[in-house]
Write a structure and sequence with these properties.
By secondary structure, the chain is α/β, with parallel strands linked by helices. It has seven helices and nine strands.
Length: 263
C-alpha cells in the first residue's frame, strides 16, 4: 500500500509546487486555488480588490500555504508589476492559472464599446501579457523540475453559442482558446499551455458586488443534470499541473457535464 500511495503521489501530486491563480478569490478561481492549497502547493491568489484578497488569503491559509497579492491585470504595467511581486515571493512559478475574467451583457443594438473593451482587456490581453511578464519565472521552474504549466480558464461559450447576449465574453474566450494553442506551440517543450473550459457554475455574474445564483432551469441543457462543482474544476486543474498531465499541451478540456460537447 505504501508503494501504491507513493506512486499516486508521484503521478498526481503537486505538493511544493509554486502556483499563481489570478481571480483566485471567488467562484471558479477560488475553487482551483483551494484545490492546490489543500494538495500542498504554495499558492498566490490575486484580485483587483485588496480586501477580497486579504479575506481569501486568511481563509485559504487555514488549509495550507496561501498568500494574496492584489493586482490590476487589465494593463501591461499591471501584469509586469504583479509578476515582479510574485518573483520576489516565489523565485519561480511552476503553475500559472489565468482565471481572472470579466463579462458584460447587453442587447446587440445597445452593446457599448466600453463593455467590449473591458472584457477583452482582462480576458485576452491580461493572459497574454501575464505569460510574457512571467516567462522568466516559468522558465526558471521548468529548468528545475520539468515543464512548467500555464492553465487558462476558457469557457464552453467558446464551444457553442450561448443564449445570453454576452457577445464580448464568448468572443474573448474563443480567443483565449486559440491563443493558448499558439502559446503551446511556441513555448514547448519547457512550458505546457492548456485550457480548462468550465460549464455552468452555481453562481453567475456579480451584480452590485453580489454573486447571483443561477436559475436551476438551465440544467435542462446539461446531460449530467447538475452544476459544475468546486471539485470538478479543481480536480481538472490539478491533473493538468501534475506529472499525469505533463504530455498534454494545446488542449481544451471541457468540464461541462456534456452541455457543449453532446448537445
Amino acid at each position: 500500500m505504501a508503494e501504491e500511495g507513493s506512486y499516486l503521489e508521484e503521478l498526481f501530486g503537486v505538493r511544493g509546487k509554486r502556483v499563481v491563480v489570478t481571480g483566485g478569490v471567488r467562484g471558479i478561481g477560488r475553487a482551483i486555488a483551494h484545490g492546490f492549497v489543500a494538495a500542498g502547493a504554495d499558492v498566490i491568489v490575486s484580485s483587483r480588490n485588496a480586501e477580497d484578497c486579504a479575506t481569501a488569503a486568511v481563509e485559504l491559509g487555514k488549509v495550507g500555504q496561501c498568500r494574496a497579492v492584489p493586482a490590476e491585470l487589465s494593463t501591461v504595467e499591471g501584469c509586469r508589476s504583479f509578476a515582479g511581486e510574485v518573483g520576489e515571493f516565489m523565485g519561480g512559478v511552476d503553475v500559472l492559472v489565468n482565471n481572472a475574467g470579466a463579462q458584460h451583457e447587453a442587447p446587440l443594438g445597445e452593446f457599448p464599446e466600453s463593455g467590449w473593451d473591458s472584457v477583452f482587456d482582462i480576458n485576452v490581453k491580461a493572459p497574454f501579457f501575464l505569460v510574457q511578464a512571467m516567462l522568466p519565472l516559468l522558465e526558471a521552474a521548468a529548468a528545475r523540475s520539468g515543464p512548467a504549466r500555464v492553465i487558462s480558464v476558457g469557457s464552453i461559450n467558446a464551444l457553442h453559442v450561448a443564449s445570453s447576449q454576452t457577445y464580448a465574453y464568448s468572443a474573448s474566450k474563443a480567443a483565449v482558446h486559440h491563443l493558448s494553442r499558439h502559446l503551446a506551440q511556441r513555448l514547448a517543450p519547457s512550458i505546457t499551455v492548456n485550457v480548462l473550459a468550465p460549464g455552468i457554475f452555481p453562481t453567475g455574474i456579480r451584480r452590485n458586488g453580489v454573486e447571483q445564483p443561477r436559475d436551476p432551469g438551465v440544467l435542462a441543457t446539461v446531460p449530467l443534470n447538475r452544476f459544475l462543482s468546486p471539485s470538478d474544476v479543481a480536480g481538472t486543474a490539478l491533473f493538468l499541473a501534475s506529472a499525469a498531465g505533463a504530455y498534454l499541451t494545446g488542449a481544451v478540456l471541457p468540464v461541462d457535464g456534456g452541455a457543449a460537447t453532446t448537445v
